[in-house]
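Fold it.
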Amino acid sequence: MKFIVRSFKLSEYDAIIDVFKSTIPGFLGTAESLRESDARPLFVGPRARFVAEIDGDVAQSYAKYRHYCYDGVFA
């Protein structure tokens, strides 16, 4: 079994939505709504998405990085 964590690919929104639906009770989001959210300008700094992959398939895990800055203080 080969396990890696890698950067999210734009073709994987459906896989991320599947992860959300299996881990967040009542989650109703869609791949399209997530794409639209990502397309909006960022006011809080850069962000990145990551997925875990097992033997070439996206596993039931996901991570997101966001850089927050409020009044010059990074969190």
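The chain has two helices and five strands.
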